[in-house]
Write a structure and sequence with these properties.
The structure is a single chain. By secondary structure, the chain is mainly alpha-helical. It has 6 helices and no strands. α2 packs antiparallel against α3, α3 runs antiparallel to α4 and α5 packs antiparallel against α6.
């Protein structure tokens, strides 16, 4: 990937973080979705996108992103916690329990 494209993605990621920090989760998700589309292997951007989806109640989208993260990095403890909480918010407690237990085992919480 050319350096100018990498720099542009980094700027867009930072912009998405600013929107997230300002609690504009929908705006953040729009920006970060484009970053993730351009750099699908960037798990940090994908996790922030999942968080933006979660906080904007786009729970199906959050779940899909979190499952992709855990496929690529099963030891991502925060993704386990957030997937568990996402499933709980969808009233899917039984589906949530394994992820919450896994998070607890990883963190000692």
């Amino acid at each position: 990937m050319p350096i100018d494209k990498i720099e542009k993605l980094a700027e867009e990621y930072e912009r998405g973080r600013l929107f997230f920090d300002a609690k504009d989760y929908i705006g953040s998700a729009r920006i970060l979705a484009e970053v993730v589309a351009a750099a699908p292997g960037n798990l940090g951007a994908r996790l922030l996108l999942a968080r933006a989806y979660y906080h904007s109640a786009q729970l199906g989208r959050a779940e899909a992103q979190l499952r992709l993260i855990l496929e690529r990095d099963p030891a991502e403890e925060y993704a386990c916690l957030l997937l568990g909480r996402t499933l709980q918010r969808q009233h899917r407690q039984k589906d949530a329990e394994p992820y919450l237990r896994l998070h607890a085992a990883m963190t000692g919480a």
